[in-house]
């Protein structure tokens, strides 16, 4: 299921799956800690975003070999690629009953190719807001979009349209095929065609 970022309804963006394993005890415990004192949905969404942004290191930044994919793996390890960080954020939001999904960008990799960057989106105040937990300096903002990367069409970069209810298989397959993220050639393994097959 793919919702339009501007007009898509949130139905279908609350369920868990093998990757967004929101019922896992580790994810539930983290949800309960972030939900302490019963904040409203927007405050909880900010807490969840800031937890992932500040407490889950990006694998490349810390030269960590572990490949985490499931939200529970990310929560336990405290490390993951941008996709994994987004999987955890979506699991935490859905645990609260807040519709959320996954978004992607196609970005230049600096060597003539492209890589897919993972984001999350949350449904608050009757509209989707994209969030990028990858950015250590990116604030939580439901008024003005704040992302780490702004695609440059001149470099063949672009936002992949829509909000995905589940992770895209083209992203999961290469992640699940490696045992050391430092040796993975994700810029080449993740197909740049992801954006061409989506509405």
TrEMBL record:
Residue ranges of domain Transglutaminase-like in the record: 29-133
Record's protein name: Transglutaminase family protein
Species name: Klenkia terrae
């Amino acid at each position: 299921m793919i919702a339009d970022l501007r007009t898509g309804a949130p139905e279908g963006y609350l369920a868990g799956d093998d990757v967004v394993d929101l019922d896992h005890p580790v994810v539930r415990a983290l949800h309960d800690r972030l939900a302490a004192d019963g904040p409203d949905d927007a405050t909880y969404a900010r807490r969840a975003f800031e937890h992932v942004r500040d407490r889950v290191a990006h694998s490349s930044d810390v030269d960590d070999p572990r490949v985490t994919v499931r939200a529970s793996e990310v929560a336990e390890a405290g490390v993951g690629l941008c996709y994994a960080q987004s999987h955890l954020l979506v699991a935490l939001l859905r645990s609260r009953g807040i519709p959320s999904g996954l978004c992607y960008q196609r970005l230049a990799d600096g060597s003539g190719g492209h890589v897919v960057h993972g984001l999350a989106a949350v449904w608050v105040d009757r509209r989707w807001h994209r969030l990028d937990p990858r950015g250590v300096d990116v604030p939580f903002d439901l008024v003005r979009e704040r992302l780490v990367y702004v695609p440059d069409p001149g470099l063949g970069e672009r936002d992949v349209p829509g909000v995905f209810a589940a992770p895209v298989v083209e992203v999961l397959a290469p992640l699940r095929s490696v045992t050391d993220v430092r040796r993975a050639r994700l810029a080449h393994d993740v197909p740049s065609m992801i954006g061409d097959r989506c509405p």
